[in-house]
Design goal:
Rossmann fold; single chain; elongated; alpha/beta
């Protein structure tokens, strides 16, 4: 298929810094069928902030610190590239694209949502700054919305008035396939790990409360950084478990660290689709997570690759139990549902259906 007959599709992000939306969008943009699509990745921010390999796609950086200040350059690029489809991710970017869409009636606009948006209104520390708190409905002019989980889809219908006809649930893909761990560790001390931003919504402090009551020796690795770092480690000190904790602010060897641990611990109060938890299952490390809104329930299969609990007491009981998991079964449980081929085809079908329907 010649370039002129391929579907021109523009992937738009604020930056390519570390994050779930950035990882998924950069992956999909590079791996969709190049015989059918002509993809370009448009980044509002700066090349220096890029942490993902994007060598397999044309990338344009606008060198702006915010989507708002990048809008004139975005409009200029739209007029130059003439995309048939624009897909954006993260709520404030999707809202901006909805506002711009009347200027480009021949372009189909797709928003990919990154979280159960209404639940983010409950984040007390960031409430005044959160786009989720001020948006009442910024999605009505988008042609389609990709939701990472069923909970997210229901949230968009119930709380933002989005038509079910516009919503497509597409889980996140397994974007890389590291080696599986060769054996379960299950040694002494027990080795636990959590990967994620150090923010209130990720629930690190309730995990610390649980671990402080554990009746067995343990070590706990926390990978990530964020504005709650000081509070988290102050709490660990108060609970007398600071010496049990290893903190790694950022690493590109996350899979290696996860595979060296017995259990992945998730404390989140809400998730979009938890990429780190999925990656843990991919390497064969089972997980324990709270029953929270989002995609966790679509990944975790009880006693196959982990457990979902409702209370801190249940969580503690699991951690005090001798667990037996087969690392190959943990890995297989997610490969069969979230492999690249399945997820990429769902995106490609969505894009082609949008064009066909126009």
């Amino acid at each position: 298929m010649s370039t002129s007959t391929k579907i021109r599709i523009l992937f738009l992000l604020p930056s390519l810094s570390a994050g779930g939306a950035e990882r998924v969008m950069s992956f999909v943009s590079q791996n969709i069928n190049k015989h059918k699509f002509h993809p370009v990745l448009l980044i509002a921010g700066f090349k220096k902030d890029t942490v993902y390999d994007v060598s397999n796609i044309e990338v344009v950086y606008l060198n702006k610190s915010r989507i708002l200040t990048a809008l004139p350059a975005i409009i200029f690029f739209f007029r130059k590239f003439k995309p048939q489809i624009v897909i954006s991710s993260i709520a404030h970017v999707n809202t901006a694209m909805g506002k711009l869409s009347p200027l480009f009636p021949k372009t189909k606009f797709v928003g990919r949502e990154a979280t159960v948006l209404s639940q983010r209104k409950n984040e007390t520390k960031s409430r005044k700054r959160s786009i989720a708190y001020v948006i009442s409905n910024g999605f009505e002019k988008l042609d389609a919305i990709v939701c990472q989980s069923k909970d997210m889809a229901e949230d968009m219908v119930t709380n933002y008035g989005v038509s079910r006809k516009k919503i497509k649930v597409i889980n996140n893909p397994i974007s890389n396939l590291p080696p599986a761990k060769t054996k379960s560790l299950n040694g002494i001390p027990k080795r636990f790990i959590t990967v994620g931003r150090l923010t209130e919504i990720k629930g690190h402090i309730r995990l610390l409360r649980i671990l402080s009551k554990l009746k067995r020796p343990f070590s706990y690795t926390i990978i990530g950084n964020g504005n709650l770092k000081e509070a988290i480690f102050k709490k660990a000190d108060e609970l007398g478990i600071k010496e049990n904790i290893t903190h790694i602010p950022y690493t590109n060897k996350v899979n290696k660290y996860i595979s060296e641990n017995d259990l992945f611990l998730q404390g989140s109060f809400v998730e979009g689709f938890p990429n780190a938890l999925l990656e843990s299952c991919v390497v064969g490390t089972p997980v324990v997570a709270f029953n929270a809104p989002g995609g966790t329930k679509e990944i975790v299969e009880t006693e196959i690759n982990g457990f979902i609990v409702n209370t801190e007491e249940e969580y503690l009981n699991i951690l005090n139990t001798e667990l037996k998991f087969d690392s190959n079964s943990v890995r297989t449980s997610v490969l069969k549902k979230f492999n690249q081929e399945i997820i990429l085809k769902q995106y490609e079908d969505l894009f082609q259906n949008i064009i066909t329907a126009s």
